[in-house]
Each structure stands twice: as structure tokens, then as C-alpha cells.
Design brief:
The complex is a heterodimer of chains A (about 160) and B (about 150).
Chain A (H helix, E strand, L loop, with lengths): L2 E6 L10 H17 L1 H15 L1 H10 L2 H14 L2 E6 L5 E8 L1 H8 L10 H11 L4 E9 L4 E8 L2
Antiparallel strand pairs in A: 2-3, 3-5, 4-5
Chain B lengths: L6 H32 L1 H10 L1 H14 L3 E7 L4 E8 L1 H8 L11 H11 L4 E6 L8 E7 L4
Antiparallel strand pairs in B: 1-2, 2-4, 3-4
Chain lengths: ~160, ~150
């Protein structure tokens, strides 16, 4: 019969709980099952509009640099195979995802990935760009690995 | 991509969205579904190892979530406790100045884990009276065999 005790302070560990990717995926599957795709889009838009409001504001004021900084920070934490690059055109930012850290973690955990998981790029990026001089595109999304190209370009 | 480090605000907003659609009952229905289909790892550990399974389960999750806590397993007394000094989820929500947390956010910890542990023969209690300070106390007791 054991007596065990663990004492931890928040500063003892980095904050990176990848099971949360699975929980979000599960939530999207449930919402689609209950209310359909439109509800998934609506929920993600509501969340992204609120949560990314400071990033949206920074893009309005400073262009694509704050977005690049944000994406570099997030993907550095998460891993995966991702290349983030600016082109000679200063109003373009390309994110080439070869292996998505979220999709690969969910699949490694043995879970089914929501067919709407790509909306976590598409809808979220649209909201991040809303009412800024930029728009987003999601190209060549591959559901098995989450590989895709995300482009941020100046609106014509 | 929504990073796993951004999940908690996304989760809170999800509860709020479901509440608007289906009311609080709809949110609880989601938590019950999540408990039944997503917490198999906790359920399996407790079936195999008893209260020690709780200790193992939360050892991983609370460390990965960078929580501030004291977790105690007293197998002889049949009691497992988590004294959460700063919940990483609620703590982060309270720090967000541009988003309002879902008002019943912390109730998910009551519904999710109670639903796993009570059918396995444990008494589950959670004191949520200090969640405004991101603190709570979770207690799991082995029920005496009659």
C-alpha cells in the first residue's frame, strides 16, 4: 500500500499537452454530428474572431510581420514539418505544411480525424485576416497528413 | 491550425456556442459524450490499477499542462486528491483580457470524471468554490465494500 505525493509549480514544466488536439477534433466531430457543417464553421468563426482579435489588430497596423512571428512561434512549439517563408513580394506569406503536428498526433493516438478539420485553417485564417488588407488561401489540403499550403496575400 | 496551447480558449468558446444552440443541458450532454468516448485511458487505468490509475493519469496530464498542484495517493486510506493551486486552464482563461470565459467552464471537470469513476466504485467530489482564483480540490475515495 503506497503513499505517493507529487508537488509541482507551474514553472516546473513547459505548457504543451497535445491530447488537446484530440479533444478539439472530437469536439468538431460532435458538433457536426449534432448540428452540421455550418455550425462547425460558425463556432470556429466565433472563436477565432474573439481569440485572434489582437493578432488581427496587429496585422492591420503592421502588415504580415506579426502573423509570421505568431506562426513561427506556434509551429516551433508544435513541431511537424512546416516551412514559413516570405517571397520577394513583401505582401505575401507562404506556409508550407508537409506534416501537420495536430493531424499527425491525432492519427498516432488512433483517432479518426474530422473531415472538417481543415476548417481550423480555412475559417481561422479568414477570421485572422478579416477587415485587414490581406486575404488567406488554403491550397492542396491532404486529409491524411494535414499537409497543405496556406497563403496570405494582399487583397486585389 | 489551432495550437494545443490555444485549446482552452477554443474549448471555452465551444461550450458557449453549444449553450447558445442547446442550452446548458446541451453542454452537459457533450461532456457526457466526451466522458464516455474520449476518457477511455483514465477508465482503463483505473480498472487495471485502482486509485493508482488516477495518480498515473493525472501525473501525465497535469505535468503536460504545467499545472501548480499537490497530488496525493494514500492507498491504505483509499483516497486520491488533487489540490489544484493554479489550474492551467481556468488560470489562462482568467488572464485573457479580450475573451470572457464560459461561466460554467469548470463544471466539465465534475461531469467528465464523475461519470468515469463512480460506476467503477469510487466516490468523486470536487470543490469548485474557489474557481475564481483558478483553484479547486478533487477527491476520489474508494467506496467501502458492503
Amino acid at each position: 500500500m503506497a503513499f505517493l505525493q507529487m508537488v509541482r509549480h507551474a514553472s516546473d514544466n513547459p505548457y504543451l499537452h497535445k491530447d488537446f488536439h484530440g479533444a478539439l477534433n472530437f469536439a468538431l466531430i460532435y458538433l457536426e454530428m449534432q448540428h452540421g457543417e455550418q455550425a462547425v464553421r460558425e463556432y470556429l468563426a466565433e472563436f477565432a474572431t474573439q481569440y485572434y482579435a489582437p493578432l488581427n489588430q496587429a496585422i492591420r497596423e503592421k502588415g504580415l510581420d506579426p502573423l509570421k512571428d505568431y506562426l513561427e512561434r506556434i509551429y516551433a512549439l508544435e513541431g511537424g514539418q512546416v516551412e514559413i517563408r516570405r517571397l520577394s513580394d513583401p505582401d505575401a506569406l507562404i506556409i508550407q505544411v508537409t506534416v501537420c503536428p495536430a493531424v499527425s498526433y491525432i492519427r498516432q493516438s488512433g483517432q479518426e480525424v474530422s473531415p472538417l478539420f481543415y476548417l481550423t485553417h480555412e475559417v481561422v485564417n479568414e477570421c485572422i485576416c478579416r477587415e485587414t488588407p490581406y486575404r488567406s488561401e488554403l491550397i492542396d489540403y491532404e486529409p491524411q497528413t494535414g499537409a497543405c499550403v496556406q497563403r496570405f496575400l494582399r487583397r486585389s | 491550425m489551432i495550437s494545443c496551447t490555444e485549446f482552452i480558449p477554443a474549448y471555452s468558446a465551444y461550450f458557449g456556442y453549444l449553450d447558445k444552440k442547446d442550452g446548458y443541458e446541451g453542454v452537459v450532454a457533450f461532456w457526457e459524450y466526451l466522458s464516455d468516448h474520449f476518457l477511455c485511458n483514465l477508465r482503463d487505468l483505473v480498472i487495471e490499477k485502482g486509485l493508482r490509475g488516477c495518480y498515473e493519469y493525472w501525473s501525465r496530464t497535469l505535468n503536460e499542462e504545467a499545472a501548480d498542484f499537490v497530488m496525493t495517493l494514500d492507498e491504505e486510506a483509499g483516497v486520491f486528491t488533487i489540490d489544484m493551486k493554479w489550474c492551467p486552464s481556468k488560470g489562462r482563461l482568467l488572464k485573457l483580457s479580450h475573451m470572457k470565459p464560459y461561466p460554467h467552464y469548470c463544471n466539465h471537470c465534475d461531469v467528465l470524471y464523475r461519470r468515469v469513476l463512480e460506476p467503477l466504485g469510487y466516490q468523486y467530489d470536487i470543490d469548485l468554490s474557489k474557481v475564481d482564483q483558478a483553484q479547486c480540490i478533487l477527491t476520489v475515495r474508494r467506496k467501502e465494500q458492503s
